[in-house]
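Minutes, methods subgroup
Present: GH (chair), OT, SY

1. OT presented the first of two proteins processed in the latest run. Sequence and structure tokens recorded below as shown on screen.
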Amino acid sequence: MPCARVSSRRWLNLQEYQSKKLMQESGVTVQRFYVADNPPDALQAAKRLNAKEIVLKAQILAGGRGKGVFNSGLKGGVHLTKDPSVVGELASKMLGYSLTTKQTPKEGVEVKTVMVAEALDITRETYFAILMDRACNGPVMVGSPQGGMDIEEVADKSPELIFKEVIDIFEGVRDDQALRMAANLGFKGPLERQAADQIKRLYDLFLKVDATQVEVNPLGETPEGQVVCFDAKISFDDNAEFRQKAVFAMGDMSESDPTETEAAKWDLKYIGLDGNIACFVNGAGLAMATCDIIDLHGGKPANFLDLGGGVKEKQVYEAFKLLTADPKVEAILVNIFGGIVNCAIIANGITKACRELELKVPLVVRLEGTNVQEAKRILSESGLPIVAANDLDDAAKKAVAAITRK
């Protein structure tokens, strides 16, 4: 059976230097680097590196930094120089200023940290990743001799240049697998063994930090005969936070949407959208279906909010606080299919939220599943202007109609 790539939302965001620090700790070869949060420290770091060439990188989570623009007037969030003395001046035009790239909001993102690193020449770029694959019931290595570019584009245009190795979770990466992948990536002679060693170390890191993906693009070869991980992205399993406290403490939430950050505190998955009908749903699949059916009936969802399984009344209350704080919201649609979720808990949370928050917008509720009759009794006897719906289609129609009547 072919292995298909499974992607997941990355809730923990690490800056480039943080990912490289984790790699260093696992013996993976990266460029020498220092981190600075003020221009004098950046200048000292450049001198301390004593390198032939230095690269100064603004540390933000968005891509496209090299072609970005600062509101200080400086162009580019990545600068190369052979003169360490100019690093302080460059850093002074980065730190404290906003960098706008194709992936940031229009106003850009404030740069609070820069990475000062040794610049190395790359004679050849390859792509390498380890990721969890549901179809293969475990981790898979994916590699290509064509790195430094969008791997999806390579897979589309030259699928024969994509190589995969399924990893036995009990055995780990075998020597023959690591060497075969290194050879497929185009490493030759002593570099083949060196690349295989880096591959095994990357797998050690993958296990050590409970990653769902470790992606290196490019995994490069230098003129001096070194295999170096030049850029990396690490995705983590949220469920492992309890045993990866040091890693999760590194998470940078300053660039995240404040509402998403607040939602995460209550174990709610929230994504803001552009519509005016707020969605309150349990389960990501049901949440997406709810958004689609609202759209089908002529409405526009204001958000994607997944309540999850082990829900408490407090979470319901906090979810309503988030939804009602959005000025675009003109109606709320609650769509709960209770398997794990007890519908009565949802109903109690809804009535409490409606009273304490003095809900001003129409509320349409569809409940089905565990303890649903008790939940419906709670809602009907609450005396609150809650519109009951028979099913999802009925709920979407009523939510759209509630806005149309306003």
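2. SY then presented the second protein from the same run.
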Amino acid sequence: TMNSDMDGDMENQVELEEKTRLINQVLELQNTLEDLSARVDAVKEENLKLKSENQVLGQYIENLMSASSVFQTTDSKSKRK
């Protein structure tokens, strides 16, 4: 029976090592997921900021164009030709 006891201990040891390995893998994956989520949040935030800056620039360009006669599509110019 001593031999079978040793076999049982070995099996338990292997099982324990396997469980430990799996637990560590799960923890590592959870950390990776947290990191990715944080990165996604950061990118979303940056995206919103850029969108808003883009709107401001678009408005600014529109204002410049409407203030400049170069971009005015007036009838008088096309008739002059």
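Chair's summary of item 2: The chain is about 90% helix and 0% strand.
Next meeting: continue with the remaining queue.
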